[in-house]
Amino acid sequence: MKYRHNLSIVGSLGDALEGRRIVLCVTGSVAAYQAPEIARLLIRYGADVIPVMTGDALRMVGEELLRWATGNDPVTNITGALEHVGLAGKETGADLILVAPATLNTITKIAAGVADTPVTLVVQTALGSGIPLLIAPAMHEPMFLNRLFLDAVEKLKSIGVEFIEPMLAEEKAKIALPEVICEHVIRKLYRIKFPQGTKALVTAGATVEYIDPIRVVTNLSSGLMGMAIARECFRCGCDTILITGRTSLPPPPHIERINILTSKELINILEQKLKHGRTKIYFGTIAVADYKPAVKHEEKIKTETAEKLMLEFTRTEKIIERVKSISPDTIVVGFKAEYGIPEEELRNRAEKLLEHADIVYASDVSKPTSIFGSPTTEGIIVTREGYFKKIEGKKKEEVAELLLELTYSMLNT
């Protein structure tokens, strides 16, 4: 039976899983207490979640809790109704099977073809039906490092099963964060699929240039757009690296991150990552300081001895120009922030940047819906192919989706 009490949260975070039916298999790990949160997060992206529980899972979390969390009756026994076929059969099966948490016992049973619990029976049926299977392990670290367990994992990977890596801490392999698990589910089912191995490099935040050891010149870029683009790249299946300058935002925990501060540090990292020509896409959302102090004072400037401070500035290198020179085949998506200029001039400046980029998003940060740190943005998108689109008060996540769609189209032409 399906209950309607949780309809208010369906799609509250987006529609990435709208219309998707996901079986959440819960096994007898202490981490089972996180299953309701995982389920609710999937629902918030539009999914219909059906829980399946082992007997040991029922000892950890109650059946009623999963019924409340999902709005569906948990499957705790396989009956003459053939629940495993209904959930994982070729004709009636779900879009994806997620085992979270997955114990060593369950994972090794799956690898051995054992089907002695509702969870293992559903999984074995799904493997025969070709339904995608994601597994999020949770156990003590010595069990996670057990050679027999690792062999079972490799065996399952060889037939297409994907694992969501746990967090190794305090001698435990702790289940991945609910947010990370949810993002892996979205990635597996996402509407846009870049070719496997597509490498994306995203920059976010602001650079700083030192006046002295504790004073800097910087700007107000928050990094919100860059974070949104990095998440979208991951969802689209890209191998994503996020390079962040100064930002107060927590980075997406499932994406590889490199921290930099100055424009020189940024250039050094970009040269390392781009010189082999393997990066397919570069998103330059980081706001690089246009000027830097000509001289960095090695000691703190003493305010007691100087009423006025005169600084000489020199121009910094244009990062976007360097990217194309290092890796000409990389699709470059440039970003330009202007302040208080007419739309026609904004477009002219964006199109001028196409000399060094394939796609440009230019915004006027003087507008209330487009200021630094705002969840929304307003501007224009132009491409080398003549595409033009005006953006008015859109969420940055929506603009990130559009930019990835354009990049995907460009990569496949």
TrEMBL record:
EC number: 4.1.1.36, 6.3.2.5
UniProt keyword annotation of Flavoprotein present: yes
Region (Phosphopantothenate--cysteine ligase): 200-413
Pfam families on file: DFP, Flavoprotein
Cofactor note: Binds 1 FMN per subunit.
UniProt record similarity statement: In the C-terminal section; belongs to the PPC synthetase family. In the N-terminal section; belongs to the HFCD (homo-oligomeric flavin containing Cys decarboxylase) superfamily.
NCBIfam families recorded: coaBC_dfp
Name of the molecule in the record: Coenzyme A biosynthesis bifunctional protein CoaBC
